[in-house]
Amino acid sequence: MFKNNTVWITGGSSGIGEALALQFAAQGARLVLSSRRKEELERVRDACVLAGLPENDVLVLPLDVTDWDSMPAAASRVCDVFGNIDMLINNAGISQRSLCVDTDMAVYRRVMEVDVLGQIALTKAVLPTMLKQSGGHIVITSSVAGKIGTAMRTGYCAAKHAVMGFFDSLRAEMDQHGIRVTTVTPGYIRTNISVNAVTGDGEELGKMSDEIAQGMDVDKCAAVILEGLRKGTPEIAVGDGPEMKALWLKRFFPRLVFKEVAKLAREERMS
After folding, report:
1. Is residue 97 within 8 Å of residue 199, measured between CB atoms?
2. How buried is residue 177: exposed, middle or buried, by Cβ count under 10 Å (0-12/13-18/19+)?
3. Which class would CATH give 6-242?
4. Angstrom distance (rounded) from CA 56 to CA 31
5. Distance CA 249, CA 233 (A)
6. Is position 156 annotated as part of the catalytic site?
7. Rounded to an integer, what distance in angstroms lies between the CA atom of residue 160 and that of residue 112?
8. Which of 101, 224, 238, 271 is the most buried (most CB within 10 A)?
């Protein structure tokens, strides 16, 4: 299904983005890999080529999603190389680990710029091409944190709630144009997301949290996402821990979920 499709992945240098790139490569998709880290993107490109994708079918395109002015030129570059953009996977993002009272406003601004406004800006740069094509697929990596607020993640949860709302709204707008929109809500996945999370003063946390270390394997996560994209699932929940049950509980028993996350917050402060 994805063979010869042009798939643009941000946050493509590690984690879920890297795992998706390798699985799309195995499907024969043409890949555009973006993040700020060119050397890591080149490493992922080499892995995709090793997996059988022709080198000319992988474009390394370094991109800072907070640099909105660079995005129209980046979209034009993709079209110049591959002729079209079939799928954009907005996967770039950072997490946060700090209490609200200890978090600088600059940290909240950074998280929102990377996780929300950067995704919106790139989507807006790509949409004219998809509208001209009369088709395409926009994907956003949100989180269970985009459905449930938890302690130590006020900025991250706010950002992920925001992208869920924006892209749900965009789905309604784009339906008449043949452009699909998919939101992905991962639970705990074994990546470096907590290692790279920013603390209250903007420094990196620098360690993997226990729940992430025990989370779903990232390759399994990518396989679930690809299957959901293949089926046209509008919202793909992916994970195998108890946090996935909380998605269901929040809908029907919100007070129970609020009490449980408050209890977890107390336990975290005591540990």
Report:
1. yes
2. middle
3. alpha beta
4. 9
5. 21
6. yes
7. 9
8. 238
State pLDDT tens for residues 123-169.
Answer: 999 999 999 999 999 999 999 999 999 999 999 999 999 999 999 99
Residue 244's nearest CA partner among 166, 145, 150 is: 145
> Residue 193: which of 182, 183, 201, 204 has the closest Cα?
204
* Between 244 and 228, residue with greater pLDDT: 228
Closest by Cα among 89, 214, 102 to 155 = 102
In angstroms, rounded to a whole number, what is the distance separating the alpha carbons of residues 87 and 107? 30
Q: Retrieve residue 149's tokens.
A: 């607020």
Backbone angles phi, psi at 36, to 5 degrees: -85, -15
With 0.90 as the threshold, say if the pTM is over it: yes
Mean pLDDT of 181-196: 95
Catalytic residue among 2, 156, 166, 167: 156
Domain ranges of the chain: 6-242
Mean pLDDT (whole number) for 218-227: 97
pLDDT of residue 268: 66
